[in-house]
Structure formats: C-alpha cells, structure tokens
Amino acid sequence: MKITGLQSETFSDISVLIQSRCPLIYLTSHEEERVMKNLALLATNVNKKFYSWSVTNGLVELNIEEGDISDLNSFNDPMEILGHIESSKENAIYVLKDFHFYMEDFTVIRKLRDLFGSLKVSYKNIIFLSPHLKLPIDLNKEISVVDIPLPTSKEFLEMISEIKSNLQASMIDIEEKDINLLAKAAHGLTLAEAENVFSKMIVCEKKLSKKGLPYILNEKRQIVRKSGILEFYPASNRINDLGGFSQLKKWLEERGQALFSSKAKKYGLPEPKGILLLGPPGTGKSLTAKVVSNYWQLPLLKLDFGKIFSGLVGSSEENMREALKTAEGLSPSILWVDEIEKGLSGGTSSGSDGGTAARVFGSFLTWMQEKKSTVFVIATANDISKLPPELLRKGRFDEIFFLDLPKEKEKEEIFSIHLAKKGRDPKNFNIKDFSIAAKDFTGAEIEQTITDALFQAFNQQKEINNEEILSAIKACIPLSTTYSHELGALREWARLRAKKAS
Predict the structure, then answer these.
(1) How many angstroms separate the CA atoms of 393 and 390, rounded?
(2) Best CA proximity match to 94, nearest among 67, 112, 114
(3) Residue 130: beta bridge partners?
(4) Which of 309, 390, 425, 485 is the most buried (most CB within 10 A)?
(5) Between vectors from CA 391 to CA 387 and to CA 397, what angle results, nearest 5°?
(6) What is the pLDDT of residues 148-196, one digit of tens each?
(7) What SS3 class is residue 375?
(8) 325: nearest Cα among 185, 229, 233
(9) How far apart, in whole angstroms, are the C-alpha atoms of residue 217 and residue 381?
(10) pTM for this one?
(11) CB proximity list for 485: less than 8 A, separation 6 or greater
C-alpha cells in the first residue's frame, strides 16, 4: 500500500528542526511505517543519508529509490550505535526505534548528553521514534518532542482511491459523497487500522460500499476498549426516547445542525464546547448524553474518574492525558463525564493525595479551554456544592441546563414512551391519571413503576391494566420526599445560574 504524506505543517516542523541542526528529536507515533516513509522523503529533500536502527535489525541504511541496504547490522547494542553515530563523518539522519527503553540506563543518558554538544556542530541528527513519550528528566532540555498526528481525511481519501484502483468494477458500489463520508468517519484510526477495516468490509460485503460505517464504528470501539479508561456506548437511544426537555431539545437541534458543518465555520461560528446537565438523580441526565450521541451521529465515550485515579504515583495524570488523547483521536466525538462532582470534588485541594486530584482537575480544565479537536463534553452532576467554581465559570461550557422533576404534561409523555417501549399502546391507558398520581416522580421512577406493574400482571397471568400501574405508583416513595432539602438548594442555585431544560 502506498503511504501518504504527513500533514504539511508537521512535516515542515520536523524539517526545520533537522535543518537547524537540532541534535536530538523525539517523535511519538504508533504508525512506524508511515513515519519512516516520510522521514526518508525528508532526508532526500535535505540531501542527507538516512539510517534506521533497532535492537533486532541493528543499523540499516534506507534508500527510497534503491530499497533497503541492510548489511550494517553489527550495532545491536545501544551504546555501540551511539558510539558509531558520534564517530561518523556522514551528513545523515539516524532513526532509533523504541530507544526509550534504554533511556533508563544512566550510562546511555550520559552518552546522549555528551553527544548533544558534538552533534550540534555537525550535520547529523538523531530521531527517536516510539509509540510512547518516556523521557528521563536529565534529557528534558536536550530533546525536542514532536507528536505525529493521526492521518487526515485527505490521506484516507488517497488510501480509498488506491483500494478502488485494485478492485474490479463489479466490486465498487459507492458514490463520491459516500467516499468522503467514509474518509471523515475514519478519522481517529491509523492508516493500518483503516486499511484493515476496509479490507474486512470488502470481504464481508463482497464490495466497497457505503456500508463501511458500522465496520469503522466497531474498530473505534476496539480502540476505546484498549484504552482501559474510556467506555464506548453505542448510539441506541433516539430523541423520541427523551420525554419533555423542550428547551434542551431545541438547543441541541440548533447547535447540531449549524455548528458541525464547514458552512458554519466559514460563517464564523465556533464549535460547541459542551454542556453541563444539573439535576437530581433519575431526571434523565445520562439518557440525554446517549440521545445526543444518536441525534448527532457521533461516538459516545464515557470517562470514568474511578479508573483515572489509580494507585501509582504519577499514573493518574498520565491516565487523564491518554483518555483525552483517545477522545481527540476519535473526534468528532462526545465525551460523557457522568457525575463529574465525584471525580473533581477534590480538585481544589492538595491533601492526602499529594495534590493528584488538583493536577488532574487542572489538566482537564486546561484541555477543555484549549482543545482544538471536535470533542463535545457532556458533564452531569447531582450536587452542585461539590463542584469547583472554576468549572462553572462562563465560557467553560456553552450552557448549563437544569433538569428538574417533570411537569404533568412531561410525565404523560414519559409514561407513554415507556409503555410503548414495553410493547403497549399508550392510548389503552389513562395516562393523565398516572401523571396526577405520580406526584414529584422522576423519569426513572416512572419507568420503574411500569416495570413493577408488568411484574405484578405477569405473576397474576393477565395483561397489564390501569389498576396495576396505579398500584405500583402508590407503592413507590419518590426520591424527592427524602431529597427535598437538597432539591430546594439545587433549584435556588439554578434559578439564576442555569437554563431550564423544560
């Protein structure tokens, strides 16, 4: 497969570092083949020889026109290859693969520090290529770091075009607009991952077609699963599954249609940052996140703060960085932070955790403010008093919505939704009576009364009727009864600071 070029900006940055005689450069990427191909092109452009080194293959000279010259593999030891580079008189680029494993050795660290000065006045550059950034503090000032971005839609389009050229005409059933859609959907995958996805689709569908979207989505689900921190939620809930919340639905419709298009960007509209959904438990905050994913046709990623704060020192900060990097890699996407107050309530303190929560909180806020990729954040909270004030300031979220207990009409809508989902026609029930009886019920409590009534009718071996549902309503003690003080405080806070969802 032809390897397409890196983004011109990244390629230009690396070229500048090489030509300005930057001795030590660290590139982070999982796409070794793609990066090596582009570095070989760059070496040709700046008239330098190009070498690759790994512990398994030793030193290999690479020539983009003549192929690999692999008769130099006598330098399998990290100190040997550094010594060879130091003594070499060639004008060359040396790519050392997975060298971060050896940077834990103080002898290697010392040697690299010695090399820094001598390489600075030479025409030699050392490039470290690794999937992970692991630098000893001793080398922080000597090494320049460049993160290699994932492929763009343009690169995926070139790859799909090459796949098409290798297929018979009978195996191609896709229009240009659908090719663009597939290329856009593949954003967040590596070229190798995308190639595997399209190959799998061709094998299963017997042709290249627009049916590739589910295959791409499944591959992204695997990426999220491998992260171990984020969870992938399928877009299964429709906007009609959400009862009430007319104001919130209107806001989502306006933002969804306008702000995720190139036309909106040209008009000058910024991409939406996210929303904070505030309300008592059971009012539909989590359901809203799932509904938005389906409504906007974006992958939904759930961030679990319990997995962020692991026991190892320094790993919590790294976990947060990796989670946010994964979310950005799969953009456009939705990052759902459920019950955010539980994860960030300690964000302003530096007590027994040694300031870990504060650092994680700071990195999350910085990311929210400065992120360039299209990641829409949906945060939910039950208790506003536990949230740091920095999170709530204007501009952090596009909007803060307060999800209160449903009103009479909204309760009727919710009863109808859940009866229909259970295969019953709402017209056969006295929905209005249910709504009146279910005073101060949340949407979750209404759903549970339908379930309880179904169990009751099933055990009596008869079809569910009004009596079973009313009986289930009377047996339920709503959360608002025991939550009244907290609910009152929440309503008072939201009265001047949040927008009503209904």
Answers:
(1) 6
(2) 112
(3) 28
(4) 309
(5) 125
(6) 888 888 888 888 888 888 888 888 888 888 888 888 888 888 888 999 9
(7) strand
(8) 229
(9) 28
(10) 0.76
(11) none
